[in-house]
Design a protein that fits this description.
The protein is mostly helical. It is about 70% helix and about 0% strand. It folds into 3 domains: about 40 residues, Potassium Channel Kv1.1, Chain A (2-Layer Sandwich), CATH 3.30.710; about 140 residues, Four Helix Bundle (Hemerythrin (Met), subunit A) (Up-down Bundle); about 110 residues, Helix Hairpins (Orthogonal Bundle). This is Ion transport domain-containing protein.
Length: about 325
């Protein structure tokens, strides 16, 4: 009489008959291993069933993907991941500096040997940065655990937006496209690459989180700002415009003044001249100060709370690592 698991016993008896060992359904992996140890049966590699072999290969594949994903996404996962994040950040900074240098008028001199040389350098640096970023984005997508939500994350959208204009620009130039406005818009989008620093800056990530959490307060702010712009722009147009004074000759031009005044910037390019206009301009300034003070305090409070949470989490993590 053997007081053993009957499911395992039938599978083991079948193994002795057919020389094929298959784990039975309805038994845990630990119990199955205990039964094999009891009968002194070891599983050689060539005795693995096809399904077990596929599962082992799949586990290895998922383990590799997870390791690579942590390497790309979490600089704190290993020292190599930290070194790679520094390299990636350096490429982002290099691409941003290269974008700025490309706008210098000295590089646009036609027929100049120096200009041609530096244009080639700028083009080569940009190509290197774009290829590096493209491979990085492709690797992030390939090793993402949830590909359906990959492009829903803001940082991934920024990554794609930073490399896509270069390929569009390349296609348009190779096809002799002459639309200057389209080319300028495409090249303007390249500035998005500076936002890739947010992937490596904890402070910038907290700021993005703060803006996202305070979107209801910000929506109220923009609504109030729009009302104030239309209101004060219309008032200043009606009180200031005359044949001799044309600073506020239309409501759209007056709305520009209202935006500058409500946001407390005050360029001074357009100013009221009448007493009534100055009175309403003073009201506009006070309204702008009161309008901005509320949402800004909410943003600063949310940012402070989030920063404190991150600092406590980092401190707790360091304590756990020191205990190990």
């Amino acid at each position: 009489f053997l007081d053993r698991n009957p499911l395992a016993f039938h599978a083991i008896m079948n193994y002795y008959r057919t020389d094929r060992l298959e784990p039975p359904h309805g038994i845990s992996e630990q119990s199955w291993q205990e039964e094999l140890d009891f009968y002194n049966i070891s599983i050689p590699v060539d005795k693995l069933t096809e399904k077990e072999a596929e599962l082992k290969v799949e586990d290895l594949y998922h383990g590799y993907r997870k390791t690579l994903w942590l390497f790309l996404e979490n600089p704190e996962s290993s020292k190599w991941a930290r070194m790679y994040s520094l390299v990636s950040l350096s490429v982002v900074l290099l691409a941003s500096v290269n974008f700025i240098v490309d706008s210098l008028p000295e590089l646009r001199e036609v027929g100049s040997a120096t200009s041609d040389y530096w244009n080639n350098v700028v083009s080569s640096v940009e190509a290197f940065c774009i290829i590096f970023s493209t491979v990085e984005v492709a690797a992030r997508f390939a090793n993402s655990m949830q590909k359906s939500s990959f492009f829903k994350e803001s940082l991934n959208i920024i990554d794609v937006a930073s490399v896509l204009p270069w390929y569009i620009d390349l296609i348009l130039l190779s096809s002799n496209f002459s639309g200057l406005v389209v080319l300028r818009v495409v090249r303007l989008i390249k500035i998005f690459r500076i936002f890739r620093i947010g992937r490596y800056s904890e402070g910038l990530r907290i700021l993005i989180y703060t803006i996202h959490q305070s979107k209801s307060e910000l929506s109220v702010l923009f609504l109030m700002l729009a009302i104030g712009v239309v209101l004060y722009g219309s008032i200043l147009h009606l009180t200031e415009f005359s044949e001799s004074r044309r600073n506020f000759e239309s409501i759209p031009k007056s709305m520009w003044w209202a935006v500058v005044t409500l946001t407390t910037v005050g360029y001074g390019d357009v100013v009221p001249e009448t007493g009534v206009g100055k009175f309403f301009a003073s009201c506009c300034v006070v309204t702008g100060v009161l309008m901005l003070s509320g949402p800004i305090s909410v943003l600063s409070t949310t940012f402070g709370h989030r920063y404190d949470e991150m600092r406590k989490f980092r401190k707790k993590k360091q304590e756990l690592e020191s205990e190990k």
